[in-house]
Structure formats: structure tokens, C-alpha cells
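User: Thanks for the earlier help. One more: 3-oxoacyl-[acyl-carrier-protein] reductase MabA. Can you show the sequence and predicted structure together?

Assistant: Of course, both are below.
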Amino acid sequence: MDYAGQVAILTGAAGGIGQGVARKLVDHGAHVVLVDRDEDKTRALQADLGDQTHCVVVDLTEESAVDSVVDTTMRRYGRVDMLVNNAGTSAHSPMVDVPRHVLDQEIAVHITAPFRLIQRVAIPMTENGYGRIVNISSVAGLMGPLDLSPYGVAKTGLIGVNRAAATELAQHGITVNALALGPIATDLLRSTWPAEQLAARAEHLPIRRLGEVEDVAHAVHFLCHPDSGFITGTVLPIDGGSVAAGAYMVEQFRRWNADT
């Protein structure tokens, strides 16, 4: 078991990607603290995954939430070996129409909460001389997304947090890496895109399919693995080659122009 005796904190655990990552970590022996604001889904996931999990139901934008997560983890397990910052939200709107509270929410979820969680878990990780931190960002953080400016700004900021933390924590045996996700076929994505548009979107990726939750879970597993100790500060696109090919923005501009 790759993670026998190790403890992971996973935010955004109740969503499609979070559930996939949780299963992967548990399957490889980790104890996983499931963090999400959706109590019903989080407790259902805990019941499904069993005794290797514990849930903390919080809204990470609340002042006391980060301390609650880490303090609960330390009381229960006495250690933190892995942190996966996966919690997220997104607002669709042209940049000029974005209300201040929407921008503040995106920054709170994607930058402030991960920053503060890293601050807190870095203390026990440093004491143990070991840690793995993975931040779930987006291809929207690598290029200018249309009608998703607050999300793109926040995900770009998360990449900045990733690099700063990687530089400061490397000397303590802690690696910090990010994934830049392209379109992943979750229930959320399917519910917000018509089926024909999803099929067309897949055709504009070099790999010619949407990503699956397992693709993300596998990448998290790789970066969390004890053998990945010489990889830090990286941003790994999980996007079917869209960033490399420029296909993401080609398709975005095509759709934008068709609507105007």
C-alpha cells in the first residue's frame, strides 16, 4: 500500500473529481479527511469509503474553517502527510459585468483557502520532514478564458500560490505541485453543457475525448506518491493536449464569434 499510515486532507471531496481522488487515495492505503460544504454528499461518501475516512463539513470561505479542518485532522490522526486543494466554484459572466462579491468569492475559494491550508499543514509536515501538496487549478489559469474572468484570475493566482509554496517548503521535504485541468466529464459538466456541445468540444482536443475523473485521480496519485520527491513547483496540464495545441481558445473564439 503506497500510503499506508499516511493521512490526506482533501477539499471539495463531495464533487465528481473529489470523489474519484478520495477513492484513489483510500485504495492505496491512505486515511482521508473529506472536506466539503455539502453535508449529505460528504457523509454519503464517507459511508461508502468506510473507516479510512473522516468528514469535516465546512465552507472554506468562513474564517474558522481552515483551522477547524486542520485541528480536527491533527486531533484524530496526529499527522498530515498530503493536502489536495480541490474545492472550487466558477461564475460565468463577461468581465465588465462581474459583481464585486463574485470576484471576492472566487478569490476566497481558489486562493485564500488553499493558501491558508498550506500555511497550516506546513507546520506538521515540516516537523515530519515530509509532505505532498497538490493544488487543482485549470487551463483557465494558463490562458485568458472567455466569460470566466474571475475563475481564470483565481486559478492563475492558485498557480502563484503553488510556486511560492514549492520554493519555500522544498527544504523541508515537502513538494507542492498543481494540475491544470481541461474539460473533465463530471456530472457538473454534463449538466451545464448540452450533449451535442460536449461531443463537439471533445473533437477539438488532440486526444479527441473529454477527460475522465480517473485521469485526474491518477495524476494526483502520481504527485502524492513517495517516489515523486524530486518533482515540485510544476503545473501539469491534464487537458488532452489542448493547451499545447491551442485548441481550447480556437474553439472558444469560434463559439464566441458565432454568437455575436
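User: Great, one quick takeaway?

Assistant: The chain is about 50% helix and 15% strand.
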